[in-house]
Design goal:
Elements lengths: L1 H23 L15 E9 L2 E9 L9 E7 L6 H7 L2 H8 L2 E5 L13 H5 L4 H15 L2 E11 L1 H12 L6 E5 L15 E7 L19 E2 L2 E2 L5 H11 L6 E7 L2 E6 L8 E6 L11 E2 L2 E2 L8 H10 L2
Parallel strand pairs: 3-4, 3-5, 5-6, 6-7, 7-12
Antiparallel strand pairs: 1-2, 2-4, 8-9, 10-11, 11-12, 13-14
């Protein structure tokens, strides 16, 4: 009788501990059940905000659907498009190397509604946050995506949109890397702390590394839209505050013309960083052709490899 009671109690405790362990473990992504993506290249169209929007997808050969994988959204700059970003950003190569699924969405009229930029996306108040949220949702339905590794990057106007996603979609996005565009708003209210790294060049002739005030006598903001450009260091300071980082700043001279500054002691294990390329251009993709670039520029770092090694998969 005593033995039976002890055995029953032990079985109950084992079951209780197993239940507690299961409840505390992070929820894993559900494998795709229908209309699942296979390795290869795809174009997907969805409706968002009354508009038919589309995006390119690359599923690496290593993807089987059995294990969950990271998802990266890679956003083109103003006057560019998804195919151009896919060709030059380096993320296609990294997808095959590292096994993540890469997505290149198209903005409306070659633009994104980022903070204070650009063209029709901004002027028409296109809800690009809702669109990119829908892209993530569609990818989770059609592939086995790791919920804890959903990343966004972009360059120029796309970098600004990546910053906006950090502010307005931190509940679904894990980390962001913005190239050649600062936060550029004082209205950022992330749902939770999120790691944000900016990569910026001091000789950027399009988005000034040191910032530009709005033309006199215009105010800094008009109806919530920034009229100037925030400096890269001011953007870093803003993310330090938003992520609740300590004052300890780690500085690394990565190369003679590349320095890294990073706040590593931030809430929920997040980080806020700035990679400064002394000299450099607005488009920091080696060999880029277009927008006046002839293809002879060689960036001092491969930005795609850098962000996966030092921000996303560190």
């Amino acid at each position: 009788m005593t033995y039976s009671l002890f055995g029953a109690l032990r079985a109950f405790m084992v079951a209780l501990l197993a239940a507690l362990a299961a409840s505390s473990a992070p929820a894993s992504a559900a494998p795709c059940a229908s209309n699942c993506l296979q390795p290869g290249d795809h174009r997907i169209a969805i409706w968002s905000g009354g508009l038919l929007r589309s995006f390119l997808v690359h599923v690496p050969e290593s993807y089987s659907g059995r294990d969950d994988v990271p998802l990266l959204l890679d956003l083109h700059g103003f006057s560019s498009n998804a195919a151009d970003e896919r060709q030059w950003s380096g993320q296609l190569r990294e997808s095959d190397r590292r096994g993540f699924i890469a997505v290149w969405p198209d903005g409306v009229a070659l633009s994104w509604n980022a903070y204070g930029c650009c063209f029709l996306g901004n002027a028409l108040l296109v809800d690009d946050v809702a669109f990119l949220r829908s892209v993530v949702g569609e990818m989770k339905r059609r592939a086995n995506i790791d919920d804890s590794r959903v990343y966004v990057t972009g360059i120029s106007n796309g970098g600004g949109m990546a910053q906006r996603m950090a502010c307005e979609a931190a509940d679904v996005v894990t980390a962001v890397v913005s190239i050649s565009f600062p936060l550029n708003t004082d209205q950022c209210r992330p749902a939770r702390p999120i790691s944000v790294t900016a990569i910026a060049a001091t000789d950027d002739g399009t988005i000034n590394y040191f910032g530009n005030p709005p033309p006199w006598p215009l105010p800094a903001n008009l109806l919530g839209v920034p009229l100037g450009i925030q400096g890269a260091r001011e953007s870093l300071a803003a993310w330090k505050r938003l992520d609740g980082c300590s004052d300890e700043l780690t500085r690394i001279q990565l190369k003679a013309d590349v320095r890294v500054e990073e706040y590593r002691d931030c809430r929920a294990g997040t980080r806020a960083g700035l990679v400064t390329i002394v000299g450099g251009t607005h488009v920091l993709y080696s060999g880029y052709v277009g927008l006046g670039y002839s293809g002879d520029y060689v960036a001092p770092i491969d930005v795609a490899e850098y962000m996966w090694t030092n921000v996303f998969d560190r």
